[in-house]
Amino acid sequence: MEGILLPNADGQWEQIVVFFRNIFNSLQEGILFIGEPLDIILAVVDVLITSFIFYYILRIIRDSRAWQLLKGIVFIVVLTIVARVFSLNLLSFLLLNTISIFSIAIVIIFQPELRRALETVGRSGLNFFSFRSSGYLGEKTATTDSQLIESIVQACHDMSLTKTGALIVMERTTPLGDLQDQDNAVQIDSPVSATLLKQIFYNGTPLHDGAIVIRNGRIAAAKVHIPLSDNYHLRKDFGTRHRAAIGASEMGDTISIVVSEEKGTISIAIEGRLYVLDNSDALRTQLHRLFLPDEEEKKPFGFFRRKKPKNVLGNEIRPTRKFLLMFVSLIAATLLWFFVQITINPITSKTFNVILTYKNTETLAEKGLEATYPTETVQLELTGRKNLLDDMTSREIEAYIDFSQVDQTGIQPVEISINKNTPFYTRTDYVTPEEVTIAVRSYNENAN
What we know:
Radius of gyration: 34 Å
Low-confidence stretches: 1-9, 126-136, 295-315
Strand order of the largest sheet: 2-4-3-1-5-6-7
Structural class: alpha+beta
Oligomer: single chain
Largest sheet: 7 strands, mixed
Mean pLDDT: 76
Number of domains: 3
Distance between the termini: 62 Å
Number of strands: 15
């Protein structure tokens, strides 16, 4: 039942095919495969946590190019398994070589998504232990945040009327120190005001070429160069400034605002996607929604309250799609659990030699009896999970005779009891010997 990982790709895929066959064989073991209540609880927790991780990853990449690439890779993997099962040699050869190439290129292909996923996980983990809401523009009051938003909205409104190009990058929980510390960046560290923003992006000033970075409610730097996004969904009429806005929004949870120099439109980029707004009022609405804390979060223990998901520019997951992602994540985690249990931690057997011990000899003496018994070594075979049996030693297993069950004199067989001292399920296949013969007599007989 235990799979052998061969050093070549053909052997690895053969192992996957054998895995599906072994599922049915393993399920025939019944309670040995599923385990006792503790085993079931740990398995359920393991699968649920893995499902949550899969669902989290799928949510991150659902609106990126990686989603289409992932569906293509899954299709190739499934087709490869089918080809191996039905012995389609030519198709298997082609697909196995394709998979070998993908195994090398997958890190390069998914590099932006992997970076974004790690940043999101790190940001979520830090926010869990933080007492500060991730939506704030800094450690300030909501009134100060409102004033800052109004300054940005007013500046964008005026610049859109004059068709002045602008790019404003706003830090949230993902630090933007690397942008601020660029050699070409001009350090400002100034309060945000509509007048200053319009002056920076005025065509006649040397600072208008580039972006400004707002950190902790202040303009940290200007003339900042932003890495351009390679998002192929971007419309052709959008230029370098819009592509830079998307590139900035791909840096964790950064928000970027762009004013078009050609059309005077105001756009906002969130999580790698660009949204063209109708006017400055729409920008105000979205900034309030993104940065100002909810009333529930202000209340005591608001962190533990169930929060209604924010509808940020309609970029929410539909209930049916959300359920589908959860279902796919659960199925993938369950199959992966089966794969680990069958190939990495399979059901196996192990033989132990245990010294026979005796319990409750004092109870025998209280009954006026004494016994003569041999000193023997008991051999037993246990069947269970490989990792569990590998960690078990003969010292952890007890083979004993309980004299509390002996009530009469004479030569009689007594069954050997086994205590495996583990909360996890294992099956005892055989015990040799299963019983020993002891001679029991009373103290009166010894006196005579």
